[in-house]
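Hey Z.,

So I finally got round to the nicotinamide-adenine-dinucleotide thing we talked about over coffee. Here's the setup:
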Amino acid sequence: MESGTAAKTTDTSASGDGAAMETIDVRNPATGETIERLPVDSPTQVAETVARVRANQADWEAMGIEGRYHWLGKLRDWIFDNQDRILDTMQRETGKVRADASNEPVYLASIINFYGAKAAKFIGEEAVRPSSALLASKKLRVQYRPHPVVGIISPWNFPLILSLGDALPALQAGCAVVIKPSEFTPLGLAEVVEAWKQEIGAPDVFDCVQGIGETGGALVDNVDFVQFTGSDRTGRKVMARAAETLTPVSLELGGKDPMIVLADADLDRAANAAAWGGMMNSGQICMSVERIYVEEPAYEEFVAKLTKEVGALRQGPDASGHDAEVGAMTSPNQIGIVEDHVDDALAAGARAVTGGKRVPGPGDYFEPTILVDVDHSMKVMRDETFGPVVGVMKVRDAEEALRLANDSRYGLSGSVFGEKQRAEGVARRIECGAVNVNDVLVNYFASDVPMGGWKESGIGYRHGEPGIKKYCRTESVVITRMGGKREPTWYPYTKGRRGIVGRLAQAVNARGLKRRLGLRS
Ligand code: NAD
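And the result:
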């Protein structure tokens, strides 16, 4: 099913003139209630929005890094001053528990601060010394000029981190930004955009458009760079569409992250980490722990500890009192996928040592589930589950664990638990963009280092230096310090002038004295 088609309706009353207007219904997954109906932006409206922010981008770029940080700093302050409101909206549209939702404002503030402090280092003008003596009279500079308008298309699992979070380095780089948030979670971002324009009064270089695939496609058609986060299925469509206009893309796609537990691991820490890394945000994280390989001597004890930890998790609606650890599934499509993976595994001989079923309504909940007796013929060990489900397999040794960990079309991230040195050695051999040793998920909060997927988990990076550089094009500036009326390489071509040029070029580029002097035939 096309993502979100279930949420889209046609409303003949909403447009005011009786004409049909497409709308999206936003639900509260914790209760199943429809909480808001939003008009969909047509391709024409998307083009108009992009054109409007494009018109203001040159002034934004001209403000410089400090000038732009001034406004982004105001946004950071607004985020802290309005934290409760942000979290309330987020919980309403995602069904997250409060603790999971509260990661988002802090992350956003840290990204504003990080790129505010580092932008000059990462995208400031570079002076380059010519490596060739033939260019000694030239001054070489590289300047990083922003892609004028960046389009961001984002998923529903972290409605602000994965939309605004990617917009922040783009804005800091001098781009204008238009975001199409997920149709399941459009409300929180719309509030931030409104605040940017009205409460903060910042320059009109940041906006959002609402809708599903057609709106996303129109955004791809109109912008200069696409930052997409979502499934690899949609990522392929976005890349194909962008190819039509030769628009560069950065794709952050799905994952099937492995965790390896070595026999010498601290099994309490490993089990607690597996529980949190697998169930946090109801397992709806691209980097969730989805499959675990445990060395034989540690297997029984690890599974017992993990089962106890996961079995004790409280699930359900959570106002703001931290009444639960595991919240709802945000997308109604996803809960069907989770159920399918679990049923497929159980039918093929797996056992649920805890959980295993969808929770009867109201609300979209799936029990925190640990499956054992699983193998790689099952969807739950191969395809992205993206829910509160983890499969655990016993392995002979670290080599078998590595072979299975790398037996995946995904390569987003992974983790290894064990004695520090041994665990690090194993971690360095996992085929993925980031590995955590004796921890899980934490690399996402280490914004100093890049995060990006290998294999079918993506193309490009967020965070670190590449996380802002990707929003820029390099413009090399070659400046002549001195020169006469003409260069020796220019017209007219005469035997004498070409001879001098040739001999000089050979003297500089050849190796060995005789060759430099042209004395060898
Ligand atoms: P999705 O691919 O269904 O949708 C993502 C976005 O694309 C939505 O905004 C959707 O409306 C839009 N879209 C749908 N069809 C489109 C089209 N034809 N053209 C343009 N845009 C279109 O993904 P989802 O279900 O929202 O999110 C879950 C997926 O996201 C999982 O696979 C998860 O692993 C991945 N994800 C990846 C990362 C990462 O950083 N690598 C982070 C979070 C989520």
